[in-house]
Structure formats: structure tokens, C-alpha cells
Amino acid sequence: MNIHEYQAKEVLKGYGVRVQQGIVADTPEAAHEAAVKLNAETGTSWYVVKAQIHAGGRGKGKIQETGSNGVVLAKKLEEVSEKARNILGGTLVTHQTGPEGKKVNKVLIAEDVYYPGDSEPKEYYLSILLDRAKGCNVIMASTEGGMDIEEVAEKSPEKIIKEWIDPKVGLQGFQVRKVAFKLGLSGNAFKEMVKFIAALYKAYEATDSSQFEINPVLKTSDDKILAVDAKVNLDDNALYRHKDLAELRDITEEDPLEVEAGKSGLNYVKLDGNVGCMVNGAGLAMATMDMIKLSGGEPANFLDVGGGANATTVEAGFRIILQDPNVKAILINVFGGIVRCDRIASGVVEAYKSIGDIRVPIIVRLQGTNAEEGAKIIDESGLKVFSAITLKEAAEKVQAVLKG
């Protein structure tokens, strides 16, 4: 589960991570009030107005309606409300949102931390995530803060620092110092970075997160280390242990179909293809998507109805898939293990009749317990539903219906 920058910073502060101070606002007037309060608390006289959406690249992104960037600087208190007005309610398009963009409902009014001093401010990149190949967490860091890490990896891979954490012993002090040293820090900035990384890792483990990305981490002109931005991804499967964090969910930032699927207990991810698929089991779903591509189509979604699929879940799956206008055919691929194939077939027929006007062909591939009985139910239903037993047969039928 993704959360907003302002939420992420509050979470990090709770574990002793220093962050750029800010106050969230949802109207231009509230933005002005936030700036006044921020000035009183921090003494800042410049203010950063930051669009709050679940996507990166906000600084380079554009608001479609006004042409404003998603992150702008107000050098006077009087400018804050106007700059917020140019962002709030607009559609922000970045390289991560796609051309459709995301509506901005809130802005973060943040303090200026790039003030002059004894040394030049310097930006770094820092993230913590699970390295699935090695089976342990890894700290990634780079001196190239403010840039996309993918770009750094492509152009300057030698500038990416990686430190893997043994899960049996946890993060060790020497590892934190090694990262700070490789970032070229010394003196008080070195000590501050050591404290920053240690606190960040503590927050990462305590919140059961799947990824922290702080880009940039800033060394200020007086050698403080703080998070200017914060991307926190929480592990959905661990949210039952963190009721307070679960409440941070913003469903307006999520795909409406994925939200609806979640309410029905379905695992759904929307894709850009033309063949909707409904499968029981994640592994079989991945194989089904491969099969769709081999048949000349493109999967329109990932949809796992689980091992206990019935008429209710099948109908919910149909309704979600059919809301995608790109879907030209639906493939249901079920292995009858926990649930019998004839029950699935009956569920498909019931769901079809309940929904009514389904204008795309449906291929149902059944294998396992009572597969033949299930195929007979499909074939004798009189509906625009075609049965298949083997993967090859199902792929051929998908190809045939796509060709008309």
C-alpha cells in the first residue's frame, strides 16, 4: 500500500528520522494558513508547494489545466495561495502517471531547506527494500540524489552503493558507517548520516514496509541530514498488525476497479490488453497470461478468484472485467482441485444469466475434478460461452474469437 509524502514523513518522524517540515492543505486558503504556521515554527521565508499524489516525477510533471509544475517554490508568503490554487484540483501528468494523469486533492506546504551556509547543500539517494534474489533486505545509496535511480544505474552503475543485511543478525553499525563513508561524507555530516540511516532502517522494519525510497536525502549547508521527499510502500499482508497505518490508505489514488475487486475478495490488477482473464491461483494466472500472448492477444488484467471460487465470485469477476472497454474476449482458466469443475461451470452459467447483456465471447478452460461434466454444462447452456479442456485448445479458441 502506497501512502502520500506527508503521511510518510509523519511515519518517519515517529522513529527519529529527520525530515523537511511541512503542513498539508486542501484549499488555497488552508495553504496560506499552513505557510503562516510554518514560518512561526521554523522561521522559513520561502515555501515549497508540493502536489500530493501517488506517483514520482512531480517536480517535472505538469498540471494539465494551468501548466504549473507539481512542485513549485513560493519566495513570498503572498505567493503561496496562488501557487497552491494552480495545483489543487488539477490533473498532474508525470512519467509515472501516464498521459491520463492524477487529480491533485492536497498539497504539502514545506519549509525551504536549501538555505545558504558554510558549505553547499548536497543531495543523495537512499532506499531500503527486499532483495528477493538474496532473501534479505538491502540498503541502496548513491551520491546522485534527485535523479531516477534507473537512470543512474544505466549511466553510472558504479555510483550505486549496496549493503545487504543478514536477517539473522540485523543491521550492524559498521554497515551503516560503510554506507556513509562511501557517500563521501566526513565530520558532523558523516555522524548525521549514520544516525539517519539507522533510524530509517528501524522505521522500515517496525512498519513492515516493502520499500522506502528517500530521494533526495539532503545534506544541508550546516551539515544536517534530512529527508526532502519520502516514498513509503507498506506491505498489505502485514497491515493487520498496523491498524493505524491501514487508516492512511487513500482509495482515490487507486484504480477504481482494483478497489472494487478488493471489496469482493479478488486479487485484480488492470493491464492494457484485450483479453480479460479469470483464474483460480496466482501461478496459473501468470501461465494464463503467457498463453494469451502466445495466442496473439494481450492480457487485459490479472485476476485471481482464489481456490474457493463460486457463482458469487465469478459474477463479481465478470462485472469487473466487463467495465474495461478494451476487453474483446474473456478467458476463464480453472483447475478443479479444491472446487469441482462442474460447480465452476454452473457458477459461470449462473453469473452470465445474472449479468445479462454480455457482448464479448467467453472461453472456459476446465481441468481437474469433474472437468468433462463441467464442459458439458458449458456446451449445453446455449450461451455465448465456449468450453476447452487443454491449454492448446483454449489458446486456439482465444485466437479464433479475436479474429472474429
From TrEMBL:
Q: Which residues bind Mg(2+)?
A: 215, 229
Q: Annotated Gene Ontology MF terms?
A: succinate-CoA ligase (ADP-forming) activity
User: Which keywords annotate this record?
Assistant: ATP-binding, Ligase, Magnesium, Metal-binding, Nucleotide-binding, Tricarboxylic acid cycle
Q: Which PROSITE patterns match?
A: SUCCINYL_COA_LIG_3 (PS01217)
Annotated pathway, please? Carbohydrate metabolism; tricarboxylic acid cycle; succinate from succinyl-CoA (ligase route): step 1/1
Domain ATP-citrate synthase/succinyl-CoA ligase C-terminal: start-end pairs = 278-398
Which residues participate in substrate binding? 280, 337-339
Q: Does the keyword Lyase apply?
A: no
- Cofactor entry: Mg(2+)
> Where does the ATP-grasp fold succinyl-CoA synthetase-type domain lie?
2-217
Residue numbers binding ATP:
50, 57-59, 113, 123
**Reaction catalysed by this enzyme:** succinate + ATP + CoA = succinyl-CoA + ADP + phosphate; GTP + succinate + CoA = succinyl-CoA + GDP + phosphate
Manner of cofactor binding, per the entry note: Binds 1 Mg(2+) ion per subunit.
Describe the subunit structure: Heterotetramer of two alpha and two beta subunits.
Q: State its role.
A: Succinyl-CoA synthetase functions in the citric acid cycle (TCA), coupling the hydrolysis of succinyl-CoA to the synthesis of either ATP or GTP and thus represents the only step of substrate-level phosphorylation in the TCA. The beta subunit provides nucleotide specificity of the enzyme and binds the substrate succinate, while the binding sites for coenzyme A and phosphate are found in the alpha subunit.
Entries under HAMAP family matching the protein: Succ_CoA_beta
The similarity comment for this entry is: Belongs to the succinate/malate CoA ligase beta subunit family.
Q: What is this protein called?
A: Succinate--CoA ligase [ADP-forming] subunit beta
Q: Gene encoding this chain?
A: sucC
